[in-house]
Amino acid sequence: MNILQPDMALLIHVILAALAAHRVTWLIISEDGPFWVFRKLRDWLFCKFDETTWINQGLSCPNCVSFWLTGVFIILPVWASVWFAAASIARLIFKWELKE
What's the pLDDT tens digit per position in 65-91? Predict the structure, then answer.
């Protein structure tokens, strides 16, 4: 095996983790989620903490949220990443179809 070729399993895991982080990031920062759980979480955190705190600023930043979530999905079993990665691909296709 060539040293420059990445291990295919690792590459697939990284892609799945990135797609999973993409989906969950948008759930956290801008969507209501099932049973409005993400909206309730955001409302609670934004009321509990001042808007200048790192928690509120971090939850409003897709780059910040996706950075930490990607690390979580790399550690989690692959099936967790697959579930959210599939949801991410479905969301991207849906957005493409609607041309949002």
Answer: 999 999 999 898 888 899 999 999 999
Q: What is the pTM of this model?
A: 0.77
Beta-carbon count within 10 A of 49 CB? 14
8 Å CB contact between 83 and 77:
no
Q: How far is CA 4 from the centre of its chain?
A: 29
- Give the whole-angstrom CA distance, residue 25 versus residue 22: 5
Tokens 């780059």 appear where? 63
8 Å CB contact between 31 and 40: no
Residue 56 CA, distance from chain mean position = 17
Domain ranges of the chain: 9-94
